Amino acid sequence: MTAPKGVTRRRFVQASVALAGMAAASKLHSAQEPAGEGLFDVHLHLSQAWYGADHGPIDARQLLAWMDAHDVAHAAVLPLVSPEAFWYPVTTEFVLSETRAHRDRLFPFCAVDPRTLATHLPQRKDVVDLLKRYQDAGAVGFGEHKPNLPIDDPLNMRLYEACSDVGLPLLFHLDNLANVDEPGLPGLARALAAFPDLTFIGHGKGWWASISGGLTKADLHVGYPRGAVISGGAVDQLMDRYPNIYGDLSSSGAHALTRAPAFGRDFIRRRADRLLFGTDYYDLTQQAFPQFSLFDELEVDPDVRRKIGGANARRLLG
Ligand SMILES: [Zn+2]
């Protein structure tokens, strides 16, 4: 390094030392910052004009303003293409184009309804090629996957195979209408075992109800179950057996962790490497987001906040 003209050697050295000190201090600071590079919301949606003017549309600028208001640095933006998923399709192409100017903060996912594989994408290569095109256009994950099929339906399994081939983590919604399974989630276990290299991210009523054991089929469709968590829940059992299953704390996720606070406090620490912060914001009228008070409510330490708040998502999504 040479001193710029007009600056004495001594002053330059002094200034350089001060700058180096500041850089070191800021590095140290960021390593200790609870949320690292800030909160990463793994579950946001854009919307178009829909059933009432109060509810949408939510375009990229509004999404960014909402994120600013809630101190969210980065977010995954999820399409919704299956007829069971939303009031109308929010297509991958729409999400890719809306986020294009904001890829420093908004990270698009892609989605394909698996029934398309029965008609228009008959070969493994057809599905892989489509996913690769989405990846090339910026997609960093697959989902929100929400078709009315068994979670281990052959069409779903072909889709998981292609996601595994191209390396796109898959975020799924599970209840009695989407990615249907039985109590104990044996279908999900078959999918996890069949595709060990594919990261699955669990979301939805049925997935989070399964934090508790002793469930009936009807329990997989209760939005926010209350009360004690019975031991033997499928979420813990699957996380023990399969390193490729994660949990998305959006929507019913935060409720599952606060229904029995002693269990929640223990669970969030035990599973600190496998949980992802998210809200599932999709409607302008949504007000309550218990995810933002979850860390305080469960008295989570800075390292766990940093992992769940963003580090895990950044690691998974590259
Ligand atoms: Zn969602």
From TrEMBL:
Keywords: Hydrolase. InterPro entries: Amidohydro-rel (IPR006680), Metal_Hydrolase (IPR032466), TAT_signal (IPR006311). GO terms for molecular function: hydrolase activity. It holds the Pfam family Amidohydro_2. It comes from the Bacteria. Residues 41-318 form the Amidohydrolase-related domain. This is Amidohydrolase. It comes from Lacipirellula limnantheis.
